[in-house]
Amino acid sequence: MFAKLVLASASPRRLDLLRQTGIEPDAVVPADIDETPLKAETPDKHALRVAVEKVRAVAPANPDAFVLAADTVVGCGRRILPKAEDEATARRCLELISGRRHRVLGGIALIAPDGRMATRLVESAVVFKRLSVGEIDAYLASGEWQGKAGGYAIQGRAAAYIRFLSGSYSNVVGLSLYDVHQMLAGFGWQGSAPP
Asked: Structure pTM?
């Protein structure tokens, strides 16, 4: 089915990831929703709920399009690590995941023009080496942590600290490309109509 694809995300990483596999959204429409975790909400439930809320916020204004939304959450145990907006938050995140296994949960939601909705939750496990104070200081000085869930970007300098990864690498970056392609194919999306 030829139809437009709308990416309901403000993340430049998600757009770059889609382009990497030949998908060029017709529009990027960030969803304006409150992403604050609910009381006692676990990382997996939070990632999926926020993805669904994003897609539902953008779909009504784009009734003839496939609308794709996602959310990425870094979880350490039952704790949801924040998006690092300041250096102190990034430092706390890095100290917490240093030498420990944590999970990256990717919630994906897709709505088709006929109103069908599909969701997926993708989980990747990541283990950082034990970080020295100097390594944390150097990473913070790079500024790469800004706005990143859990205070790091696997596709950048933090890759040197990752001892183990199980699951989707692109999920840790911000969007599981395998799952998105499967979901779009399952709904019969064939790309946008030729000009």
From this structure: 0.93
